[in-house]
Automatic annotation (TrEMBL):
SUPFAM superfamilies associated with the record: SAICAR synthase-like
Enzyme category, top tier: ligase
Biological or metabolic pathway of the protein: Purine metabolism; IMP biosynthesis via de novo pathway; 5-amino-1-(5-phospho-D-ribosyl)imidazole-4-carboxamide from 5-amino-1-(5-phospho-D-ribosyl)imidazole-4-carboxylate: step 1/2
Pfam families per the UniProt record, alphabetical: SAICAR_synt
GO molecular function list: ATP binding; phosphoribosylaminoimidazolesuccinocarboxamide synthase activity
Reactions catalysed according to its record: 5-amino-1-(5-phospho-D-ribosyl)imidazole-4-carboxylate + L-aspartate + ATP = (2S)-2-[5-amino-1-(5-phospho-beta-D-ribosyl)imidazole-4-carboxamido]succinate + ADP + phosphate + 2 H(+)
ATP-binding as UniProt keyword: yes
GO cellular component terms, semicolon-separated: cytoplasm
Protein species of origin: Mediterraneibacter catenae
Name this protein carries in UniProt: Phosphoribosylaminoimidazole-succinocarboxamide synthase
EC identifiers of the protein: 6.3.2.6
Length: 287
C-alpha cells in the first residue's frame, strides 16, 4: 500500500471506508522536515492521542477506531507500523486550526509586548512572559499547505472562512469549534496539571462525519501540537523548559548554519522529553 498523502510527520493510507494514519519518527521545526529522525516519536504521538481521545469522548466523538494493527489490513502488521498507526473514520475536515492558549508565550507573548493583544484579543496589562491567562483564549488560524505558514485569524474571520466552505453554517460551526476547543482544553489541562505538566497551548482539528456531526480528528494534545511545561519549577517572567520540540527549535535558532540537522545529543534529549511527557501523563511506560 502507498500513502495517499504525506504530511511533514504523518502518512495517510486509504483503507476504503476508513483511513490509517501513521505517525513517523520524522520531526519538523519551523515548517521544515529535519534530516534526523526521533526514534519512538511516532509511537508517542499515536499512543498519547489515543489516551486523550479515550478521556474526552464524553465531550464529543473523535475519529479513532483502533490503534491495534491486528485489526488493520495485513500490510500494517509489520514492526514499523506497530504502535504508531491509528485507524480512523473518514471525515470532511473543517478548514480552521483551533488553537487555544492558557498561558502567554511564543508568538502570543511577542504580540502582547507590541500592543497588549494576542490575535486581536485584548489582554490585561502587566502580564509577564509565561503567565497564566485569566481564562483560556481561542485564537483560530487558517490551514496552510505544506511549505506555507498558517495564518492567525480572528473569531469573526473564522466565521467568514467557514461560511465560504459551508454556506449557511459559518456561525454555527465557528461557535461549536470555539466551545469544543475551550472545553477540551480545560478538562485536559486540569488533568495534566494533576500529573505535573502544564499545557500552555495546543491546537485541535475537527471534521464532519457522514451525518454532519462535528467530530474531533487528526492528533490530540501531543508534544507536536502542544506546548508542555513541567509544573515543577514553573516560574513566570521568562520562557519555560518544555517537553516538546522547543528543545530542537532552540538549538536550531542558536545555530543558524545548521543545515536542518540536529547533533546526536540534541536528538537524544528530544526523545527523552517525548517519552517523559508520555509517562508522566499516562502513568505508563511506552511499550
Amino acid at each position: 500500500m502507498k500513502p495517499i498523502k504525506e504530511g511533514k510527520v504523518r502518512e495517510i493510507y486509504d483503507n476504503g471506508d476508513s483511513l490509517i494514519l501513521v505517525a513517523t519518527d520524522r520531526i519538523s521545526c519551523f515548517d521544515v522536515i529535519l534530516k534526523n529522525t526521533i526514534t519512538k516519536k511516532g509511537t508517542v504521538l499515536t499512543q498519547m492521542s489515543k489516551f486523550w481521545f479515550d478521556m474526552t469522548s464524553d465531550i464529543l466523538p473523535n475519529h479513532m477506531i483502533t490503534t491495534d494493527v491486528n485489526e488493520m489490513p495485513e500490510f500494517f502488521r509489520q514492526p514499523q507500523f506497530d504502535g504508531n498507526s491509528m485507524m480512523c473514520k473518514k471525515l470532511q475536515m473543517l478548514p480552521v486550526e483551533c488553537i487555544v492558549r492558557g498561558y502567554i508565550t511564543g508568538s502570543g507573548w511577542a504580540s502582547y509586548q507590541k500592543d497588549g493583544t494576542v490575535c486581536g484579543i485584548r489582554l490585561p496589562e502587566g502580564l509577564k512572559e509565561s503567565d497564566k491567562l485569566p481564562e483560556p483564549i481561542y485564537t483560530p488560524s487558517t490551514k496552510a499547505e505544506i511549505g506555507d505558514h498558517d495564518e492567525n485569524i480572528s473569531y469573526e474571520q473564522s466565521i467568514e472562512h467557514l461560511e465560504k466552505a459551508f454556506p449557511g453554517k459559518g456561525e454555527e460551526y465557528a461557535q461549536k469549534l470555539r466551545d469544543y476547543t475551550i472545553a477540551l482544553y480545560k478538562k485536559c489541562a486540569d488533568y495534566a496539571l494533576s500529573r505535573g505538566i502544564i499545557i500552555a497551548d495546543t491546537k485541535f482539528e475537527f471534521g464532519l462525519d457522514e451525518d454532519g456531526n462535528i467530530v474531533l480528528g487528526d492528533e490530540m494534545l501531543t508534544p507536536d501540537s502542544s506546548r508542555f511545561w513541567p509544573a515543577d519549577g514553573y516560574e513566570p517572567g521568562h520562557g519555560q523548559p518544555s517537553f516538546d520540540k522547543q528543545f530542537a527549535r532552540d538549538w536550531l535558532k542558536a545555530n543558524p548554519d545548521n543545515d536542518w540537522t540536529l547533533p546526536e545529543d540534541i536528538v537524544e534529549k528530544t526523545i527523552d522529553k517525548y517519552l517523559q511527557s508520555y509517562e508522566m501523563l499516562t502513568g505508563k511506560k511506552l511499550q
